[in-house]
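Structure in, sequence out. Go:
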């Protein structure tokens, strides 16, 4: 659960869009649901890559709400960096699609702020983003309540991360040349796997 309090509101613009991630999941085709339910993704809590704020975690692409049991997509263009089990190219295509998909108007609500208003939402089933269409000051205070660990929709297949399939031993110079040249998010995934030792899928 998160709460926002609008202290300084621009006269025009700065609305927030909230997405219903359960509805976005429900509208996918059955084959796409099945594929997404078998995957995990690397999330980075600092979308700007600030030095010293590198907080990463691997979560299922489809999670189950801890109370209702409903399934929801669990991806965000701001925080989801890489599908663990897919190649660089496959991950980019799928994440681009999912991030565009959840922002479709049919799944979203647009909230027009006024000063001193408060909004709160369930992070397990919604995502949000601000419309960057304002040039005046905008000051919001946020409180996030500690939540649960995202649980997968079903037992996840024990696929090895795609990075283990590249040439050379994991973490070696040869492996770095053959894998990490793909981009920053691949390097982030490699760093996460190094720091956490043997890779383990989230389990029910």
């Amino acid at each position: 659960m998160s709460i926002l309090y609008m202290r300084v509101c621009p006269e025009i613009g700065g609305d927030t869009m909230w997405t219903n991630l359960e509805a976005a999941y429900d509208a996918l085709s059955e084959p796409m649901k099945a594929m997404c339910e078998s995957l995990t993704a690397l999330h980075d809590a600092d979308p700007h890559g600030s030095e010293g704020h590198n907080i990463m975690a691997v979560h299922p692409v489809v999670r189950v709400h801890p109370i209702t049991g409903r399934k929801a997509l669990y991806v965000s263009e701001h925080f989801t960096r890489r599908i663990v089990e897919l190649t660089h190219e496959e991950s980019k295509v799928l994440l681009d699609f999912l991030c565009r998909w959840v922002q479709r108007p049919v799944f979203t609500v647009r909230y027009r702020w006024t000063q001193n208003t408060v909004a709160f939402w369930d992070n397990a089933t919604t995502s949000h983003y601000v419309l960057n269409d304002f040039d005046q000051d905008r000051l919001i205070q946020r409180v996030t309540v500690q939540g649960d660990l995202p649980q997968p929709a079903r037992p996840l297949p024990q696929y090895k991360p795609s990075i283990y399939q590249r040439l050379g031993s994991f973490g070696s110079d040869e492996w770095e040349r053959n894998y990490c040249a793909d981009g920053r998010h691949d390097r982030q995934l490699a760093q996460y796997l190094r720091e956490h030792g043997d890779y383990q899928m989230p389990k029910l």
